[in-house]
Amino acid sequence: MGNDKVRHILSVSGGKDSAALAIYMRDRVPDMEYVFCDTEKELPETYDYLGRLEAILGKPLITLKDPRGGFDHWLKIFGNYLPSARMRWCTKHLKLFPFERYIGDSLAISYVGIRADEHRAGYIPTKPNIKPAFPFKEHGLCYSDIVGILTDAGLGLPSYYKWRSRSGCYFCFFQQKIEWVGLLEHHPDLFKLACNYEKVDKKTGKRFTWCAGESLEELSRAERIAEIKMEYQQRIARDKLKRATLAEVLELENEQGLQPCLICTL
Predict the structure, then answer these.
(1) pTM of the complete model
(2) Which of 5, 79, 99, 174 could be disulfide-bonded to 260 (CB atoms 3.0-4.6 Å)?
């Protein structure tokens, strides 16, 4: 290995769990390295949240980027094929690879913010010198504990949780329809940019859209928005756990379906 000293590294995404873990570990591992893999397509609220987190930690976040280029560069490399749940090239090239490139051959412990009340696998390194650690699982900390950590620190939850369940790129394909509506209402400029990524192959007529079977232009029509909002309210009414917020309702549904990328959303 390049260095016998074990490094302690925590990747924050701009989401509640990794932010809470960073605060939780702050006084437990003084030499922790806090990093953020920046796709340059994050929400403004995410950058604001990370700035406030830096102030609480008392040390800067180390920003990591792919030196070859960001999302638009890799979109060209993949032939303008939009990433999807089955082709997550964005996570690999903009999050995972920059993170592991930063660690290099050093022996490292990577701290991951999966909670004790979550039923999903953790980050699995592709390099043998990186060992994952799950402090929340080890110490039995659940959702209410994470909210308590953030509240006590004066950080609170990310403001985008009012209309979105997770951090990540503003056009993340894991967004549910109600979250796309939220993007349209809170950031119409970003919604328009997301629309510009959608294409139609003139030869085959095949559509490349963020949502399966529906373009953002179609989703943004007034009657469709009303329908999506009505369906969302019905889902809340059916929620047996009676979770109060959009973030909690959608997080529950995501746990029951396809899992978003951990390094993007924790």
Answers:
(1) 0.87
(2) 174
